[in-house]
Model the fold of this input.
Amino acid sequence: MLDKRFIRENPDAVKEAVRVKGVDLDVDELLALDETTRKLQHELDQGQARKKTLSKAFAQADDARRQELRAESNELEEQLKQLREALEDNKTRVNDLLLITPNIPWDGSPVGADESANVTIKTWGQKPEFDFPPLDHVDLAEQRGWAEFARARTVAGARAYALTGDLLLLERALHSYALDLLNNKGFTPISVPALVKEAPLVGSGMFPKGREETYELPADKAFLAGTAEVALVGLHSGEILDKKHLPIRYAGISPCFRREIGSASRDVRGLLRVHQFEKVEQFVLCEADEAESARWHAELLECAEQILQALGLHYEVVECATGDMGLGKFRMNDINTWFPSLDMLRETHSCSTLHDWQARRANLRYRDADGKVRFVHTLNNTAVATPHLLAALIENYQTKDRQVRVPEVLRPYLGGREVL
Done:
């Protein structure tokens, strides 16, 4: 969330962020509630000070005066009770609005309502050329006996799948390669819970807006996270880190779960837009410095590009528009990878800088060189998300006889095999 003082001092900037990100928020209402809250707090403080004065006077007063003081004290206590209730109500309302107040986007972000306003800033590689009619990943996987779609749906319903044989081994190879690459770059590999409490979902910014997209387990007061980012944000919540330990870099691996309510009319065939998937997520906590954040944004983006280049997949990097980047993002770059069956590029990675927007929600802090406690900056990006990227891989590397060539970087994880 944004600092309340920042909002008071920069209302026009916040209103512009609300406009360009398409957020349903009345900033003037937020400011008015905040002003009322501060006035109520002042009245409460004065009333509590008056009550202390009455208590001291009571100890020194005679019986007649004590009766007067007792009556005044009782009346004051009722006033304080009403003030506390009003103050708590206003604080709750202010907090609810703060939770949907967007971060101020980067000046270089295209202004637009949705992904149609995204701007391509880089392309790499070439589309594969086939001298035969290529199959999509579903037909290819079913012909090779590499996936169970219909049977999986009898177990779990729509958008379920089960990988078998070489396709599962190829998926494991992708994740192992990504973890090894990040480990060699100084990231700490970590497996995190997919079952999380509500607090880290609020802290990461997934709630309140994304609640309907999240699977809930009411009996356990828990939820299934849609990304390892949720647990990684919550991992250091409430701590005060030492500056010398920053940056903290994680390569988080976890199963991920998303309801995908809003994608019913979009591409949902086979391994696209499934409810359960596996992902290795890059995540960084660094000092509260814009230049430092920018440096790590470039690093996370480069890691994802390095993976796709090593896999030999054609992709583009886009600068995401304000209306496509979500509440908490300062800057966001998507990477779209080529899917032959769709004859288009589709998102496989999303790199985000959030500055201290998440940290304020999740209470992620550090002590700087001067001893001042500050909120960290957070960043994240996909490393590998399967089976989405897996689908792109087998479509791009299929052969005429329905085999799949294995990219060289994955061969060590598959016993040296060159073809599946």
About this structure: The first strand starts at residue 119 and ends at 124. The domain at 4-98 is CATH 1.10.287.40 (Helix Hairpins). The CA atoms of residues 238 and 363 lie 5 Å apart.
